[in-house]
Amino acid sequence: MAEHVWTVLCRQVLFDSDGVISLVNVTDKLVIPDEIKQELVKARQEDLKGVFVHLRLHLISWWTRSDLSKPEMLDGRVSIINPSGEIVNQQAVTADLKEFLGHRIDLGFEEFPITGLGPHHFRIEQKRKSKGNRTQWKIEAKIPLLIV
Asked: Distance from CA of residue 33 to its chain's centroid?
């Protein structure tokens, strides 16, 4: 099972030719303009779940092999959880740790689903096989995003 090292939410990612990464405008808060808040109210009145806000966000994760001498694969998922605890978006993530000791995952968002204001979070999980060969999901991290 791969090891989760860190995850950061930011507005921009810069890579240089040596593979060094710069995370720009790291954030844990999103201020929604009043016109989007009005669209959200209107959507709710029309029995819609919410609205999509057009913005650029990156969720960057760094993963390594749990045993550096043994190649492995990451099988995971990232869920966006709203203040009510509902999953409003979910995306599968994989990383091949057979050739390299570590792998960076960059999930870029061009639009973000908003069903309400308040504390949201990104839940990063990894698939595990338990005894009896049943699939279980282990939560590796919760990254907060306050939407106001």
From this structure: 23
